[in-house]
Amino acid sequence: MFDDLNITLTVILFLWCFGLGAIEIEIEGGRGWAERLPTWYLKRGRIGKVYGWFMGHRPLTGYHVYAFTIPLVILHMPFGMGVDWSLSAELSTIAKYFVLAVIWDYCWFVLNPAYTVKRFKRGNVWWFEVPWIWRFPLDYYMGILVSIGLVSLASWNVGSDSILMEHLWLIVGLLVLTGLTVFLAPLYHRWYRHMRRAGADDRDITPLYGAPAENEVWNLGTPDLHPLEGEEVSESAARRRPAEEPR
Predict the structure, then answer these.
(1) Whether pLDDT at 125 is above 90
(2) How many angstroms separate the CA atoms of 164 and 184, rounded?
(3) HEC per residue, 78-135
(4) Each residue's pLDDT tens digit, 76-116
(5) Where is 158: in which H helix or E strand?
(6) Structural domain spans, the chain
(7) CA 226 to CA 31: how far, in whole Å?
(8) pLDDT(47) > 50
(9) Rounded distance, CA 70 to CA 89, Å?
(10) Do residues 167 and 149 touch, judged by C-beta distance below 8 A?
């Protein structure tokens, strides 16, 4: 019955999800979907509208372009390390990505003291203004269903259900480890607060100095980047540019 359960792979992939969720907490804090990061938001235009249609009307951000694609690239690493590529293998890889994306996203909420399991519900997450079923947004269910659908195609392509069974056991294993994380999350919350207690931060004794050209990047506020070197600015564009604020 458990022949298709790869415990080592399941644990490694879960730790991958845990790590992605945790590092995003360190980057974003309690403001999800890159809300306070110096990145761009895109909802208009063809790309923004198509992305929003598939992603529950969430904006595409520069942060998520990399946050989504780099993990997918990493999952393809075995193909560069001796594993033969095939259509079935590709479908299985993308299927893993979809289910892992759900787990890593949920880990962000479970571990984030600004949310936790108790506060993870409709109305508390502006980027999940989609239908919710029980305690989870529709996106989670769709991610897992798409994952199962892709791996079912892979199994059909090779004429064996072994790939599908292995994937289903992977999902079960990931859900069990996620449940364990929910149980142990208060320990993470305690450590998170401990590392941010008053007087604990050592920035004041660290010799920090700014980048040599800080004005070349957008650090929130009104964008006021000068044009690229050699690029001329039209008179109308110059009139639209707001006056530079004193720094």
Answers:
(1) yes
(2) 30
(3) HHHCCCCCCHHHHHHHHHHHHHHHHHHHHHHHHHCCCCHHHHCCCCCCHHHCCCEECC
(4) 999 999 999 999 999 999 999 999 999 999 999 999 999 99
(5) helix 138-158
(6) 7-194
(7) 29
(8) yes
(9) 19
(10) no
Beta-strand ranges (E) seen in the chain are 41-42, 60-61, 132-133, 136-137
Residue type, 54: F
Tell me the one-letter amino acid at 247: R
Q: pTM for the full model?
A: 0.86
Give the closest residue to 98 by CA, choosing from 141, 139, 146, 66. Answer: 146
Query: What percent of the chain clears pLDDT 90, i.e. is strictly above it?
Result: 79
Nearest Cα neighbor of 142 from 102, 170, 82 is 102
Cα→Cα distances 68→32, 134, 193, Å: 15, 26, 28
The structure tokens 């590529």 sit at: 85
> Is the pLDDT confidence value at 14 over 80?
yes
Cβ within 8 Å of residue 241, ≥6 positions away: 224, 233
**Strand 132-133 to strand 136-137: parallel, antiparallel, or no bridges (unpaired)?**
antiparallel
Tokens 């502006």 found at: 126
Q: Mean pLDDT of all residues in the chain? A: 90
Q: Are 163 and 154 in contact (CB under 8 A)?
A: yes
